[in-house]
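job 3f2a | input accepted
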Amino acid sequence: MKLDIESIYRMYGEYIYRYIYGMVHNKAEAEDLLQDTFIKVMKADSSEIENMKSWLITIARYTIYDHWRRERRRLKLRPFVREKKRDIDLKLDIEREIEKLPPKLKEVIILREINQLNYKEISDILGVEIGTVKSRLSRARIKLGESLGGIF
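job 3f2a | predicted structure (152 res):
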């Protein structure tokens, strides 16, 4: 059975975008990565998909990691100057601190707190045990709490 990509996009596009944006914190980049994700979805064999959300997040996850690998190679070729965000409100503070987390912690906090996935879904997406998910989530929350003065 071939998926109706338009229906899938309408049902999950915003959800996948929020995950991607949470990982990259750049609207244009997130939109590009969302498009790349759905191009991969169109090309993939979807005949035996049991959990559409997990499957889409997994594709988005690999798309992001591929993007980061390409960026790392590109950045080695030229200096990188990063603009500082203004700390306008708590939301920006939290986004900034999530951005600083190591990828494994950043990923689990976004999947749980932003995308509201349960531990089993996160475990399936990341290919790790539920205990590992809980451990990473705990470490991410502790780091965010320390950097945000205990408000997380």
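job 3f2a | The longest helix spans residues 52-77.
job 3f2a | closed
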